[in-house]
Amino acid sequence: MNDPVELVPLFVIFNTDQYRKIFDLLNKDWLTKQELSEQFHEDIVKDCLLILKKGNLIEEKWRMPKPGEKPDKEYHASYSKFRANFQCNFSDLADLLYIAISNDEELRQQAEHVEEEVMRGNSSINDIARRFSVSPSYIKGIAKRIPHMDVKGQGLVSLEKT
After folding, report:
1. Does residue 107 sit in helix, strand or coil?
2. CATH number of the domain located at residue range(s) 4-77 in this protein
3. What is the pTM (predicted TM-score) of this model?
4. What is the pLDDT of residues 33-43, one digit of tens each?
5. Helices within 39-78 (DSSP H only)
């Protein structure tokens, strides 16, 4: 891990019981979305896989189908150990930890406002940060927490559209 913003998906996964269980299963075996959905609600699986992908915590490959069936993607945890190589100020670290583990209503509202900005066409991290008087790393952290949003370069993107 080279960017402290990447802590957000990691902590979201380990701070959510069902996400953690999905990650543990993927750490042991290659599983498809369907196989995971047999044990967890489909929406939970979808959001968890999106967060794991954003955090570069899983890999995927095509499973060879039985004759007459369609191929299906299967997933597996990419790493079993954690290594970080970054430096950031304590203010940014505190913001990222708050974003990753908080269930605060104010944070939910801020996330909705960020999503609204992106839907209006303003995807610039710096512009959104100025608009809400927060740091760019705070906006990146929010994007990493929202399953269907991610950071690409200096902007935010909706993963539902990509």
Report:
1. helix
2. 1.10.10.10
3. 0.78
4. 999 999 999 99
5. 42-54
In the CATH scheme, what is the code of domain 90-158?
1.10.10
- 30, 63 contact by CB (below 8 A): yes
Q: Is the dihedral of CA 61, 64, 69, 70 positive or negative?
A: positive
Distance CA 54, CA 137 (A): 16
**45 is written with which tokens?**
């699986």
Tokens of 47: 């959001």
Provide the residue ranges of all domains of the chain, joining segments of one domain with +.
4-77, 90-158
Confidence of residue 2 (pLDDT cuts 50, 70, 90): confident
**What is the side-by-side order of every strand in the sheet holding 58-63?**
31-32, 72-77, 58-63
Of 87, 68, 146, nearest to 114 by C-alpha is 146
Chain segment 45-80, per-residue pLDDT in tens:
999 999 998 888 899 999 888 888 888 999 999 887
Tell me which DSSP letter residue 6 carries. G
**Region of residue 39 (left: phi > 0; alpha: psi -120 to 50; beta: else):** alpha
74 backbone φψ class: left, alpha, beta (φ>0; ψ -120 to 50): beta
